[in-house]
Specification:
Blueprint (H helix, E strand, L loop, with lengths): L36 H27 L9 H13 L3 H4 L11 H12 L3 H27 L1 H12 L2 H7 L5 H20 L3 H17 L6 H11 L7 H15 L1 H9 L2 H12 L9 H4 L2 H4 L1 H13 L6 H19 L12 H14 L8 H24 L19 H11 L6 E3 L2 H11 L3 E3 L19 H6 L5 E5 H6 L1 H13 L3 E7 L5 E7 L4
Parallel strand pairs: 1-2, 1-3
Antiparallel strand pairs: 3-5, 4-5
Length: about 525
């Protein structure tokens, strides 16, 4: 029997019914008959309760205290871009529509911002997308290993700190992960039965994944590795060409939009900057920053399941492992690293862990102590994720910040003060562009950063340098200088330069945002040349 011919569930395990499909109908005496409509509806409702409960847990973790801390730099940029799409002329001058990435997510967000614009509505969109990703993980896990494994995988992702933290932010990676998980599901359906519609759906979903964030094109390497290493799952050339055409047609929306807008050079400039950008983290970053938030218990369960159930390993595990391995290897070697870049691997890791935990009650003798122990172990794994995830819903305000890991305390408060107390037309000089983005979004006042390089090859094309800040202050081009603890930790050289300028131009602190222990985290100084 070939791998393709195997059922969608491991040998010796009966497939669990899919939620919504209804339970098996017992035959009536002498002949089969349908259950009464009311009874069938009740059974479907009862069958759907576990998944509903998991999605409710996912929603609580993603919506609780959603706006306790203001937006960070990336969130400000994406929300500002969405606001520009929604017709906000003020933010449109600071956050152009075509900046660095495709605008699928920003377009979706703009539809909500047209109705109501606030931090909560901005973050509610990625939070809802995160809940949808949990549901998609259930669909993937139940298709591969049965309903119990799917529910466990969905529950693990629902409370996984890594996914919770990222999906609570206005970032592109949540949408990318949802679309990527949909790609996996479609490929699974195609591997089970080579029907063209599933590969076309995979191509469309992959195109949407790239439109969400262009770096997801790396995931194609995982699919290539899977098909290359799995001769039992054959892809017809005609199917490949048609699916590739669908994917290309979806992706083409971005360059076509750029060309029609007259900003066709934007994408190329950003790509060149990324290619020659200096490394921002050490080589081992992903092996130290991400595993604690994915959960050591999840990683251990996934690895243990691969070893323990190795005799049952088929193309299913190979598909998930290829999807995980390629982005991990690529971004480990790529000099530019971001905390959230590996989010697409969270769902397959949860599925592999869910597979192992779902099989525990069937190990050895099927007695109640065995099942109780298996349930206790699964609960322990979930708890090991839920406790730190809940703690991360209230990020610290101690001046430490890792891009992609949460909001930026103090930035919103400083920006709101600027909008209410600083006259229009005033300009800000900040240490780094991250705080500048936040202050521009909340304060509606333009900002430039000291740390932006005058060399076009060494700076983000979205930012303009300040070649001679001393002269700019002397000529009155900037009326305020902003010091912040986050930039001070990252760029001590430019922080010292900002402090000298504040002292030289008679800086007076007009606003201070404080963090833990009353320590200042953002200070706005009014400066004057004489």
């Amino acid at each position: 029997m070939t791998e393709r011919a195997e059922a969608a569930h491991p040998a010796g395990i009966t497939a669990d019914p899919v939620v919504g499909a209804g339970p098996p109908v017992p035959p009536a005496t002498g002949a089969g008959r349908r259950l009464p409509t009311g009874e069938a509806a009740v059974r479907r409702l009862v069958a759907a309760l576990p998944l509903t409960a998991v999605l409710a847990v996912a929603a609580v973790f993603r919506f609780w205290r959603l706006t306790a801390v203001g937006l960070n730099s990336d969130e400000a940029v994406y929300t500002g871009t969405a606001a520009s799409l929604a017709g906000d002329d003020t933010l449109g001058t600071m956050f152009p529509v075509f900046r660095a990435h495709p605008v699928l997510f920003q377009t979706l967000l703009s539809l909500v911002l047209r109705v109501h614009s606030s931090d909560w509505t901005a973050r509610a969109v990625p939070a809802a997308i995160g809940v949808a990703a949990v549901a998609m993980t259930y669909a993937l896990g139940s298709r591969l290993y049965g309903r119990t494994a799917g529910l466990l995988a969905a529950l693990l992702l629902a409370v996984m700190p890594y996914h919770v933290v990222v999906s609570r932010q206005v970032l592109l990676d949540g949408t990318m992960t949802l679309c990527g998980t949909a790609v996996l599901y479609c490929v699974v359906r195609y591997a089970e039965s080579p029907r063209l519609r599933w590969l076309l759906a995979a191509g469309g979903a992959m195109g949407a994944t790239v439109l969400a964030k262009e770096t997801s094109v790396i995931l194609l390497g995982g699919l290539y590795a899977f098909f290359a290493l799995t001769p039992a799952v054959r892809m017809r050339v005609r199917h490949l060409l048609l699916a590739s055409g669908v994917m290309a047609a979806v992706i083409a929306a971005s360059p076509v939009a750029l060309a029609l807008s007259g900003r066709s050079g934007t994408g190329g400039n950003y790509l060149l900057w990324q290619l020659f950008r200096r490394s921002n983290h050490e080589l081992t970053f992903y092996f130290t920053a991400v595993p604690p938030d994915v959960g050591p218990a999840v990683l251990l369960a996934a690895a243990a399941g691969l070893v323990w159930l190795r005799k049952e390993n088929t193309w299913r595990e190979r598909l998930l492992l290829c999807w995980i391995a390629v982005p991990v290897l690529f971004f480990t070697m790529w000099p530019v690293k971001g905390y959230q870049y590996l989010l697409p691997v969270a769902a397959p890791l949860a599925v592999l862990a869910g597979r192992a935990l779902a099989r525990l009650p069937w190990a050895g003798r099927r007695t109640w102590p065995v099942r109780a122990g298996a349930a206790a172990l699964a609960l322990a794994v979930v708890t090991s994720l839920a406790v730190p995830a809940w703690a991360r819903t209230d990020p610290p305000d101690n001046g430490r910040f890792l891009a992609g890991s949460g909001g930026l305390p103090g930035g919103r408060e400083a920006g709101v003060w600027l909008r209410g107390h600083v006259p229009e037309g005033a300009r800000l000089l900040v240490i780094g562009p991250s705080m500048g983005n936040v202050l521009q979004y909340y304060g509606h006042r333009p900002a430039q950063a000291l740390s932006v390089s005058p060399d076009p090859r060494s700076r983000n094309p979205s930012y303009a340098p300040v070649p001679n800040p001393d002269r700019s202050l002397r000529d009155g081009e900037f009326q305020y200088v902003v010091w912040d603890a986050y930039s001070a930790r990252r760029t001590p050289f430019f922080t010292a330069k900002a402090e000298k300028l504040i002292d030289r131009y008679h800086g007076t602190a007009v606003f201070t945002a404080t963090g833990a222990g009353g320590k200042p985290i953002v200070v706005i100084y009014r400066v004057r040349a004489t």
